[in-house]
Amino acid sequence: MKISILTPTYNRGKLLERLYNSILKNLNYGLEVEWLIMDDGSIDDTASLIEKFINENKFDIQYYSQENKGKMEAINNLVPYVTGDLIIECDSDDYFKQNAFLTIKNTCNELDENTYALCYLKYDQNECNIGNLFKEKETTMFNMYFKQGENGEKALVYNAAIRKQYNYKLEKDEKFITEARMYHKMDLKYKIKCFNEPVMICEYQEEGYSKNIVEMFKKYPYGYYEYFKEMFDMDLNGIYLKKRMYILKHYILFSYLTKRKFKETINNVKGILNRVLFALLYFPGILLTKRKFLKT
């Protein structure tokens, strides 16, 4: 069994050695490993550092570069080079736990033609779980977050044969979109299987996407508009009211940021309850957006 690690990176030379060392510590668990790196236009010492890793010849490392197009396009451009049976995306500010590949090896037999990914926990640097424990063994990413009360990031190990059929869809030359847009497309046809075991450590950077989400919303509204519009194609029966309101409020937010008219946006809303709530929330939502997101 072979695992392909995909890492997009931009001026993160100072962090890559930590990730590299975490892979080295996981090489003795019987998984064949390849590390595919896409340099998204770095101007630091990333290239020379990766050259050093390659020259050490500990495992297969493939280095690619592109003009700065963002994390999602970097991953899209790496996927065609994958030769593994499994795919895991690992950002440059994340790294693997000591026994991560053993955990993956012991559970990868759960992958089948109906399962697009195995889902594991992510820990922060204090060894605390990011989010909750899984409530269901077999589910979808949509159901997990919107019907089962999950929160926090998770680590996905994809069935490569299925993952290669999908990509991160970006709008109007934007550089970012939530990974969930792709997850939800996969959810319509396949399932995930969950394991309450950690495989990855996460450290959010000050300049990273997670800590600058409001700026991401303002900078890349078109992809988010499409993401929340597509939410109405999901089975919304049984979702938490708080999550239903989350969908509607953000759909209104991005409708305004992308200059959509009320008639156009309400026509995309499916279900009587959703349409009533949308109509009630629309104008208060527009006022809130002007106050919170359009400050100069």
What would your notes on this structure say?
The protein is α/β, with parallel strands linked by helices. The protein has two domains: 2-206, Spore Coat Polysaccharide Biosynthesis Protein SpsA, Chain A; 220-293, no CATH class. Helix content is 40%, strand content 20%. It has helices spanning 13-24, 46-56, 71-78, 100-107, 141-146, 160-163, 180-187, 213-219, 221-230, 241-257, 262-267, 272-293, and strands spanning 2-9, 32-39, 60-65, 86-89, 94-96, 115-124, 138-139, 154-159, 191-202. Strands 1, 2, 3, 4, 5, 6, 7, 8 and 9 form a nine-stranded mixed β-sheet that branches. Helix 1 (13-24) packs parallel to helix 2 (46-56). The longest helix has 22 residues, at 272-293. It is globular and about 60 Å long.
List strands and helices in order, with pairings.
Elements: E1 2-9, H1 13-24, E2 32-39, H2 46-56, E3 60-65, H3 71-78, E4 86-89, E5 94-96, H4 100-107, E6 115-124, E7 138-139, H5 141-146, E8 154-159, H6 160-163, H7 180-187, E9 191-202, H8 213-219, H9 221-230, H10 241-257, H11 262-267, H12 272-293
Parallel strand pairs: 1-2, 1-4, 2-3, 6-9
Antiparallel strand pairs: 4-8, 5-9, 6-8, 7-9
Strand content: 15-25%
Give the SSE string. Answer: EHEHEHEEHEEHEHHEHHHHH
Q: What is the gyration radius calculated from CA atoms?
A: 20 Å
Distance between the termini: 53 Å
For this structure, the CATH topology of the largest domain is Spore Coat Polysaccharide Biosynthesis Protein SpsA, Chain A
